[in-house]
Amino acid sequence: MKLEKIPQIKNTSSNNFFLLASPCAIEGEEMALRIAERVVEITNKLEIPYIFKGSFKKANRSRIDSFTGIGDEKALKILKKVSETFEVPTVTDIHEISDAAMAAEYVDVLQIPAFLVRQTDLVVAAAETGKVVNLKKGQFMSPESMKHAVRKVEECNNEQVMVTDRGTMFGYQDMIVDFRGIPTMREFAPTVLDVTHSLQQPNQSSGVTGGRPDMIETIARAGIATGADGIFIETHFDLSVAKSDAANMLDLKYLERLLTNLTAIRKTVNSL
Fold this sequence. Notes:
Layout: E1 18-22, H1 29-46, E2 50-53, H2 72-86, E3 90-93, H3 97-104, E4 109-112, H4 120-128, E5 132-136, H5 146-154, E6 161-165, E7 168-169, E8 175-176, H6 181-186, E9 191-194, E10 200-201, E11 210-211, H7 216-225, E12 230-236, E13 250-251, H8 255-271
Parallel strand pairs: 1-2, 1-12, 2-3, 3-4, 4-5, 5-6, 6-9, 9-12, 12-13
Antiparallel strand pairs: 7-8, 10-11
Helix pairs in contact: 1-2, 1-8, 3-4, 4-5, 7-8
């Protein structure tokens, strides 16, 4: 994948890591624009290439009463408005084959969720749109096995593919990050570390996923130190009202400090 080919992406000559960030799900226009404005301000200051992330729907939920979205077209139009307002690329997840062409009308990057990354027809549908494809490594998969998912995209004549590690299942209710996977997957495609999802504590008896946000900076620092090309972070300005993944998201007020520290580490890594 060539980062500079992503529409509207900026700061690509900085030799910094790139960032996929913002809320877990699109909850409304005002919240999306508010978060995007702040993240754009920070990333321009630190010269970080930035892609705004927001799920237009959440299909993988433990409970039937969990928040899944505000309506597909409504959420996709908000993603489009974010892109037009701040001149940044956007990324969203897709869950069904029919989602690919629909979402491709509004966003620049299509993301395959970790639970679905082995679904060949879904991966092919995303690849055939010509959009950048972000393949999230299954929690149940080895880093080495992701080369096959990457090849599915490439064999559709789409070289714009990246891989994202979001942790590996550790027992029934915890995740770990095997940092050996970052250099392994970088052999196949640019590799992103999904920091916040890697700190989830899934399968809680309540049906609501827990998390360890206190470890966000620890995991992020290690990811940059081990060569991650990009960082994925979900953030919100009010975690008390966030409708999805509040337990493991980063409070927006801490984002600038975190990215400043990660940028310093990246500069050190680049100098070695």
